[in-house]
Design goal:
9 helices; 42% helix; globular; TIM Barrel; binds zinc ion; alpha/beta; eight-stranded parallel beta sheet
């Protein structure tokens, strides 16, 4: 209840700032949407009207792919969500700091991609807190507004994630990029598959993701030229 009260007063503070005509500094509308308490709904959309899409990247950070991906996103001024393994965070904390510094959002993807479908809430909580602790050791003060269960095996994770103020994050479109079917195939699957408001599941870790990064680098400017905007997933069900 304390947390809920805090966010309510925080919202009032934001409204007061806006009413006073003051700037919110570097906060983008997408980041502002991350505020407010999480709930147990597994969100799979941007929650916005029009041609919006949210890109999410799982299983990193990975030094083979994440830096290149960050370069691509930066060059097109796109913000995305990175669903991190705690173990990889410990191995590559500098990549976590870069993800945060470049304005992307973080997502807890467990310590080692455990299947939690049969775990108790206390077991889940210990793992999720350990993952966030690894993230905060790498990037002190970074927000972790989302949680994604490995392989979508949600079990009781949504209630635990919401209690830790992380919104369960699903997806509407997956293009099976982990099979490395070829960059042009991934481009086609993304072009054919993306519809308004989608959360899209992609990977920057778990193997060689060169095809994924190259496909994203082609699709982003195509969609932008067609009036699409890239935003973050909704933070409420
Ligand atoms: Zn994963």
């Amino acid at each position: 209840m304390i947390r809920r009260g805090f966010f309510r007063s925080s919202d009032r503070f934001l409204i007061a700032l806006l009413a006073a005509g003051l700037s919110l500094g570097a906060m983008t509308p997408a980041q502002a949407d991350q505020r407010g308490p999480a709930d147990t709904t597994i969100v799979d959309s941007t929650g916005r009207d029009g041609r919006t899409v949210a890109l999410t990247f799982d299983d990193g950070p990975d030094p083979r792919s994440t830096p290149h991906l960050l370069d691509v996103l930066r060059s097109h001024q796109v913000k995305a969500v990175f669903c991190l393994w705690g173990e990889h965070v410990k191995e590559h904390p500098e990549l976590v700091r870069r993800i945060v510094a470049e304005g992307h959002a973080l997502c807890n993807h467990t310590m080692r991609h455990e299947n939690m479908s049969t775990w108790s809430p206390s077991e889940i909580g210990a793992n999720l807190r350990a993952t966030n602790a690894a993230i905060h050791a790498a990037a002190p003060g970074a927000r972790v507004p989302y949680f994604r269960a490995p392989n979508g095996a949600w079990g009781r994770t949504p209630e635990v994630a919401a209690a830790l103020d992380m919104q369960p994050l699903g997806w509407r479109l997956s293009v099976a990029d982990w099979n490395n079917p070829g960059t042009h195939v991934l481009v086609q699957r993304l072009r054919d598959g993306i519809s308004a408001g989608d959360v899209v599941l992609l990977h920057d870790g778990g193997g060689d993701r060169t095809q994924t990064v190259n496909a994203v680098s082609r699709v982003i400017p195509q969609l932008q030229a067609e009036g699409w905007s890239f935003t973050l997933p909704a933070r409420h069900g």
